[in-house]
Structures are given as structure tokens and as C-alpha cells.
TrEMBL record:
Entry GO MF terms: acyltransferase activity
Signal peptide boundaries: none
Residue ranges of domain EF-hand in the record: 107-142, 144-179
Keyword Nuclease assigned: no
Listed Basic and acidic residues bias regions: 248-260
Lineage top rank: taxon: Eukaryota
Protein name listed in UniProt: Lysophosphatidylcholine acyltransferase 2
Pfam families from the UniProt entry: EF-hand_7 (PF13499)
Record-linked InterPro entries: EF-hand-dom_pair, EF_Hand_1_Ca_BS, EF_hand_dom
Keywords: Acyltransferase, Calcium, Metal-binding, Repeat, Transferase
Compositionally biased intervals (Polar residues): 237-246
Region annotation Disordered: where it falls in the sequence: 237-260
Amino acid sequence: FLPVQVPDDKEKSDPVLFASRVRNLMAEALGIPVTDHTYEDCRLMISAGQLTLPMEAGLVEFTKISQKLKLDWDGIRKHLDEYASIASASKGGRIGIEEFAEYLKLPVSDVLRQLFALFDRNHDGSIDFREYVIGLAVLCNPANTEEIIQVAFKLFDLDEDGYITEDEFSTILQASLGVPDLDVSGLFKEIAHGDSISYEEFKRFAIKHPEYAKIFTTYLDLQTSHVFSLPKEVQTRSSVASNVVSPENHEESTSGKKDD
């Protein structure tokens, strides 16, 4: 038996402090490390096993992640389903670059490798479930706002008729990924319910697959940087042609041209 522990005044007002100290004493006596795994991690482990993933995939330190990233149980459990659908074809239940590309229905390219590296926090060449959840919350969800989705849709809608055709979709994705012979027919059919994509269809897909938001925003940033690196007399033409730069930036470019 370990000695009886009595909380001090500070620990009486904050029982978590007392629990933490007692836990550390127990771990020290047993010669084992302390982790932040909780009952929810056990539930995730069972769920991982049911999804034919290694049970340790569910050990994500749920409480720590949920507090830091403001995620709830249902959200993380839903991500586990998505993760399983990607990792099921891989050995060991982890996502490699090939599985990542196949899930996104895109080829392995420099842009995709960069996106994969942002998820792969320990740079071991694969993404575990914990890295996947953090990547979605930190990298993708902030980029997947209504405003970004609207701008991305306008970016694809080259003729501004309110619909994206497969040719328009292919043109922008080829430029985004730097893959001139990219076949997007499979991805296009997944989004569209006909010969073109409406805004509502595009929005539903973007919300369901936030990984694409990072690709879109990276392309938008590159296009904007390209426009503002041009001479002022070219900026206005480029901003209209790229259909990316905001009206405010367009006004700045126009006023700059007048000053010249």
C-alpha cells in the first residue's frame, strides 16, 4: 500500500490537481509512464477493432485532443470511419501517400506531397488516426469556410454561368496540382449529379471532404501572389483573368494603374 494522500487547500478547491498528483505517485511507484488516455479512448479502440483497424489506432488521447481542438465524441468517431475507409487497403492500418492520393482521387504530385507532409506530423511517411484528426481540425477545417468555398467555386466556374463543367473542373485542378494530363472524371462524377456541378453540390462535397480545401487555398494563395508580383499595368488584367483576386484588391490594382 502507498501512503495515504491528503489534499492541501489548493487541491481541495481544484480536485483535478489532487487527482493528477495521486496519479503521478501511483505511476512512479509502478515504474510506468502517465498518459492522457481515458475511457473514450477505450471506446475508440473498440470501434477501431470493429472497423478492422489495429485497436491501438483508437489511442488518440481523446480528452487532450477534444479540449485543444474543440472536438466532440461524435465528430472524432465520424473521423474514425473516414480514416478507416482510407487506411483499410494499407498494411498496419496507417495512411501512406498512395492511399491518401487514392482517397482524394488525385495523382501523387508535389502539391499532394506537401499536403500529406502537413498531416504527417512526425515525418515517418505515414499518417495515423491521431495525426489525421489533428490535420483535419488544424489545417483543413479553418480553410473550409463558406467564403473559401464560394471563392473556390467561382475559381472553377470560368464562364461565370453558375455551374462547373468537367472541362472547367479539369482545367483548374490540372493547374493546381501541376499535372497537365490529369483525369478528373472519377472525382467529377462523385460531386456532380449530371453534366455540371451546382454551387450547392460543390459546397456539400467541400464540407464532407475538407482535405480539398487546403489544395484550393494553396492554389488561391499562389495565384494571388503571382498577380501582385506582376507590374501594375498587368495586375488588373491578371486579376480578372484568374477570377481569384477580391474586388477590393481589384480596385487597388486599378487605382495603381491610374496613378501611373
